[in-house]
Amino acid sequence: MDKKWWKESVVYQIYPRSFCDSNGDGIGDLNGITSKMDYLKELGIDVIWLSPVYQSPNADNGYDISDYQAIMEEFGTMEDYDRMLASAHEHGIKIVMDLVVNHTSDEHQWFVESRSSKDNAKRDYYIWRDAKDGHEPNNWHSCFSGSAWKYDETTDMYYLHMFAEKQPDLNWDNPVVRDDVFKMMTWWCDKGIDGFRMDVISMISKVEGLPDGVDGNYTPYVCNGPHVHEYLQEMNEKVLSRYDLLTVGECPAVTVDEAKKYANSNGTELSMVFQFEHMDLDGGETFKWNERKIPLSGLKAVMNKWQTGLENCGWNSLYWCNHDQPRMLSRMGNDSDEYREVSAKMLGTALHMMQGTPYVYQGEELGMTNVPFGSMENIRDIESINAFNELTANGTFDEETMFRYICYKGRDNARTPMQWDDSENAGFTTGTPWIMVNPNYTKINAKEQVSRKDSVFHYYKKLIALRHTEEAVVYGSFNLLMPEDEEVFAYTRTLGSTVLFIACNYSQNEAAVEIPAELAGKKAELLISNYDEQGETAAKTLRAYEAVVWKYTL
Ligand code: GLC
Ligand code: CA
Fold it and tell me: How confident is the model at residue 180, as a pLDDT?
């Protein structure tokens, strides 16, 4: 298998608004990030993926960009950015920027001009259509509720916005748009950044004619569209291939077959993709709002499909959470005081020992949990607020139920401030935080965890280090064990004569593990475990949320 630095790396995602506030205005910023570089170095991560820091009116917390070559005032200045980049590089940490180019803000100069008249030179930068029989041009739903079309009085036409009204979709079929995007990307690459995470990049090519979808479902006409690979190959040729980058495409509705193209090992498109199948197991985008748990056998089936499907022809990214998902502990593990730490370590083990590049979302390394929001007044996320309004108004849910679902699945669970210490506001800010702090910061915080050797933090540090010291963790082939079992997630990773045996108990009960015949009874080395007491070789039962990684040399 081709060796690449980004296959041997662990990425840490920073949501800048909620990471660290350096000037007391309640909003995290670039100087705050710079001040935490030593912390990230100690954790041992290789790469930071920075959620958007560009100029933005913040309709969607920076995913609505009004100037790609300026920094959001609340986050600092371009000088602050350059200092942060230099400091990261001095610490041996790379920086991956969030590239949001399916859409811009409606306050971007391109859109301001585009909407001004039908014959403006930038008109065709966006997707404008006439009304159809006095209605929207088609029946597509926006990802953030309501129609995907907004009527614009100035020219008596509609524009397409797959997300919020303030996020008009760019017209990628226009070669001038593509060139402008590529120029902007080149500008950032020349600054010395190390890659891009590409926001909803599978949605940039829409099917011609923009046909109605069944019940308004746009997916077949928007995701993995007719020219998406062509456009990414062009981007690769004109920009990406000229630098040594990590590129990861966020790809709603991607299948393994599509991913083989996006993340092909010839390197003609991207390094890897974010797929969503495992996140959709509890309802996902088809119907996100519920309080279901992700079933283990389903999770294993999906992970197995991706692990084996991309082996030797693509590359996986591995994640249990990010800024769009609730906290993994509350969704897949156990966030009670008794089991929080042990189950956080178990989930981390299950993920980090697979093949692919692991992503740690800020606070995951501390075992941060979902948030007791109390009421809708504490919710900031546009997706949750719009869904609350739409689904309570049309009678799908009463307000109490919908609020409960938002507390379970809403994106704000991941967006409350990073918990640095047990001082007021978790040490995130000296001012008033833009979103409430999870009250459990007095017991879950970085200061306490860094000082305690058996904390989740130190366990993650060890998991991350294993990726750098054990080649089989990076390049070993994956083999799932016990596929039907609803309690144990077990697999092996094999590279040459090395076999790693990974067993994780997803349940609170004691659970039996089947040890593969060729390993049973053999002497092995324990690489990591979330329980101290272990025998000479793998045991046949696992305690509550126990995780073990044994290394065999055959
Ligand atoms: C992606 C981002 C999400 C954002 C959306 C629109 O899914 O991760 O946060 O709201 O795209 O840009
Ligand atoms: Ca600030």
Answer: 98
